[in-house]
């Protein structure tokens, strides 16, 4: 445990406050001693843990200048202020290309996620990896609610009112592939409180019982 960061994946699902959240499934996929770009880094909890436990050097991209300052205080080398929905952007002051580019629950908030993925691949090393985490809209609770005629946006979760895109495990993996990336791993998972009790069912029917999923990919042509 690092201060207020819950590294046991027991974060509640009943709050829209992500200031103390941390996706340990993303963390586990990052190799030690990596140069990382954390896209949508927010307050920097992931980067702090990567720096302290895996000796990574971490840069971030964030639209909110105020929270980016918190990420810098937590050890991020640079935080680039970019609105990925509007800006045609260049990242300055990067020390070479990155070993890992992380999209931890951010692509679903973008107008053109494939375009952003494609744009940022020029900053990935030929042998680098991309780690994407997305919510699974085909989770059993969403299916049951839809059968009852309910599709209500919320302040948090899969139907977060700031989500612009919705993905199943299959369509999310296809979205990553369409950016010219080669899939390495697709991992459905549950990290929140009571949902972790579904992990034994998740092994049988992952597209039904996983609340989120990871996609790990690499440059298709290694360029």
UniProtKB/TrEMBL annotation:
Keywords on record: Methyltransferase, Transferase
Gene Ontology terms for molecular function? methyltransferase activity
Domain of life of the source: Bacteria
Please give the InterPro entries that the UniProt record associates with this protein: SAM-dependent_MTases_sf
GO terms, biological process = methylation
Which Pfam families does the UniProt entry name for this protein?
A: Methyltransf_23
Gene3D superfamilies, A to Z: Vaccinia Virus protein VP39
Output this protein's name. Answer: Methyltransferase type 11
Q: Which organism is it from?
A: candidate division WWE3 bacterium GW2011_GWB1_41_6
Which taxonomic lineage does the organism of this UniProt entry have? Bacteria, Katanobacteria
